[in-house]
């Protein structure tokens, strides 16, 4: 069974930073592009960021451009989301996911983690 496990979420003040990690097991990690999504109760699961298999290409949602950075370490089977200048509207459950190709729609992703809560207070 493929497993993706997120960690690093928590409660922070506006303007603070967090670094999320997603550790993969039982997966050919370097053959997948990796994405981050986020979701709040009652709303759609929204695309946040994507990184290609090699890390050569990245893509970000407009709402996080210039504040969030996605990275990967294929030797450690781990993808990261560095979140700086956090805002209350960033509050959500954050999910990592693996895809065969780039997409901003969640249907493009084959495997998902269980999520980690990020809460940003004003």
What does this structure look like?
- By secondary structure, this protein is mainly β.
- The chain has strands at 3-7, 10-13, 18-25, 33-39, 46-51, 58-60, 68-73, 78-83, 92-99, 109-112, 116-121.
- Strands 2, 4, 5, 6, 9, 10 and 11 form a seven-stranded mixed β-sheet that branches.
- A hairpin with a 6-residue loop joins strand 4 (33-39) and strand 5 (46-51).
- It is globular, with a radius of gyration of 13 Å.
- The model has no long low-confidence stretch (mean pLDDT 95).
Structure in a nutshell:
This protein has strands spanning about 5, 10-15, 20-25, 35-40, 45-50, 60, 70-75, 80-85, 90-100, 110, 115-120.
What is the topology?
Blueprint: E1 3-7, E2 10-13, E3 18-25, E4 33-39, E5 46-51, E6 58-60, E7 68-73, E8 78-83, E9 92-99, E10 109-112, E11 116-121
Parallel strand pairs: 2-11
Antiparallel strand pairs: 1-3, 3-8, 4-5, 4-9, 5-6, 7-8, 9-10, 9-11
């Amino acid at each position: 069974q493929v497993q993706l496990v997120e960690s690093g979420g928590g409660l922070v003040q506006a303007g603070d930073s967090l670094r999320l990690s997603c550790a993969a097991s039982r997966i050919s990690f370097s053959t997948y592009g990796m994405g981050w999504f986020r979701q709040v109760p009652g709303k759609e699961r929204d695309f946040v960021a994507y990184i290609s298999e090699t890390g050569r290409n990245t893509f970000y949602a407009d709402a996080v451009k210039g504040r969030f950075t996605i990275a990967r370490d294929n030797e450690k089977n781990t993808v990261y989301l560095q979140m700086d200048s956090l805002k209350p509207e960033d509050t959500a459950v954050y999910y990592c996911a693996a895809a065969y190709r780039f997409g901003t729609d969640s249907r493009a992703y084959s495997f998902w983690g269980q999520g980690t809560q990020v809460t940003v207070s004003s």
